[in-house]
Amino acid sequence: MTVRRCAWANPANPVYLDYHDHEWGVPCHDERRLFEMLNLEGAQAGLSWETILNKREHYRQAFDGWDADKIAAYDDVKVAELLANPGIVRNRLKVAAAIQNARAYIQLCKDEGGLDAYLWRHVAGQPVRNHGERIVTTALSDQISKDLKKRGFKFVGSTIIYAYMQAIGMVQDHAADCDWHQR
């Protein structure tokens, strides 16, 4: 039996196939993973998702398992260490964004109860099911992006937020001919 996947899932990369098959489009309610994915989607800006996905374990190690309290307290010494780490994208703005996002996330947790409560209320707790068409932004991604920016988050433009919504399963966008489309 031939397995049919979305065209973007590189068949030569087992990490990418595993991501497609077991994570992308699957509803996520785990706070730490929601925070991680928000930052990884931002780190992807201008690059391929495959590049970031291949570095994900390095990111987890470099950013203390995506512990927002630890990240919010990073100092210049830690920033220099991150910028010297070949396992992550060494971009000063993206490293600074992760630190700022940790601070904004901590406040969002106080205000909204966390990313899970904040994000999923926008879709009444149920994923939006699309029909396999190629979408890069929506009115909802525009709205969430604008609000997150107001709250101090960085690298959260509408295109990034839409990709994030797909990644965490708020939106089910598997291609119509993908075996995962109807799952």
Topology:
Layout: H1 14-22, H2 31-44, H3 49-54, H4 56-62, H5 68-72, H6 76-83, H7 92-112, H8 115-120, E1 128-129, H9 139-150, H10 158-167, E2 171-172
Parallel strand pairs: 1-2
Helix pairs in contact: 2-7, 2-10, 9-10
- Helix percent reads 40-55%
Radius of gyration: 16 Å
**Mean of residue pLDDT values:** 95
The shape is globular
Q: Structural class of the helices, strands and pairings?
A: mainly alpha
Order of helices and strands: HHHHHHHHEHHE
Which strand order spans the largest sheet, edge to edge or round the barrel?
A: 1-2
Low-confidence stretches: none
The major pleated sheet works out as:
2 strands, parallel
E-strand count: 2
Task: Report how far apart the termini are.
Answer: 17 Å
**Number of helices, where a helix is a run of at least 4 consecutive DSSP H or I residues:** 10
- The protein's oligomeric status is single chain
What portion of residues belong to β-strands? under 5%
Concise summary:
This protein has 10 helices and 2 strands. It is mostly helical and 183 residues long. The model has no long low-confidence stretch (mean pLDDT 95).
